[in-house]
Amino acid sequence: MNKFNKIINDKKILNIYEKILKDEVKNGFWAHHGFEHVYFVTNLAEQILTMLNYDNNFIEETKIATILHDIGCIEGKEKHSVRSYEFAKKYIKDNQIKLTNEYDVLEAIKMHSNGFQTDNIITSVLILSDKLDIRYNRLTKKGENIKGIRQWKNIKDVIPRIEGNILYIKFICPTELNKKELEEFYFTTKLIKAIKCFEKNLKIHSIVYLNNEEWKFFT
Predict the structure, then answer these.
(1) Rounded CA gap, 4 and 49, in Å?
(2) Measured between alpha carbons, how far is 179 from 183 in angstroms, rounded to an integer?
(3) For position 27, what pLDDT does the model report?
(4) CA dist 168 to 116, 118, 194, Å?
(5) What's the CA dihedral at 51, 52, 57, 59 to 10 degrees?
(6) To the nearest 5 percent, what fractions of the chain are helix, strand and coil?
(7) In this predicted structure, which of 14-28, 51-65, 134-148, 157-171 has the lowest mean pLDDT?
C-alpha cells in the first residue's frame, strides 16, 4: 500500500473528517470541509498534474497535501490552515512517512487559504483545486440561504482539461445561475486569484466556461 492510500484508509483521519462534517452546522460553516470535499480536491489535483505529465511520486505527495489540507477544521474554520499544517507535520513524523517534497507539501497545507503569491507548484495546485470546489453538495444548509454562495447549488460539477498550454475549466450548471450574484461573492475573487497563481507558476493560460459558453468574468 502506498503512502497516500495508508493515509486515506487511516481511521484516525477518517474519524476527524467525519467529526468535522458533524460539527459544521454547529460552527456556522457555509461550506463543507469534510472527507468528500478533500477527496474531490485530491482528484482534481491528480487530474491536473497527470495532464501536465508530472511523475507519480510528485502526484502522490501532492495528494497527501490535498487530503490533509482541511483537517484543522476539527477546531473550527478560523486559522484552520495553520492547524492543518501542524497536524500534518506531526502526523508525517509520527508515522515515519518519507516525502521527497516534504517542505513543499507542508507549505501547501499551511498556505492553501490565501497563499496566492506562492511559487510552490504543490501549493498552486492545491489552492486551485480547493477553490474550484464550488459544487452544490459543498453547501451546508446555512450556505444554501446566504447570498452569493447560494448560487453554488446550481453547479453540479467542475471539469478541468489541459491542451497544450491552455487549462480549460468547465462548470456544469443544468439550472439557471445568477452570475452577477456569484461574481460579487468574495470567494469568487479567491478563485480568480487561484487561477492567476496557477497560470503564473505553470506558465499556462486558462479559459473558464459555464456549460459551453466562455465565462468572460475570469479572463
Answers:
(1) 16
(2) 6
(3) 82
(4) 20, 22, 14
(5) -60
(6) 60, 10, 30
(7) 14-28
What confidence score (pLDDT) does residue 1 get? 55
Query: Residue holding cell 439557471?
Result: 176
Amino acid at 46: E
pLDDT one-digit tens code per residue, 151-192: 999 999 999 999 999 999 999 999 999 999 999 999 999 999
Q: How far apart are CA 81 and CA 171, in angstroms?
A: 26
CATH class name, domain 3-218:
mainly alpha
CA separation for the pair 177, 129 (Å, rounded): 21
Nearest-angstrom CA–CA distance, 206 and 196: 9
Q: Where are the domains of the chain?
A: 3-218
Q: Cell 507539501 identifies what position?
A: 105
Taking the model in full, what pTM does it have? Answer: 0.97
Q: CA-to-CA distance for 99 and 90, rounded, in angstroms?
A: 13
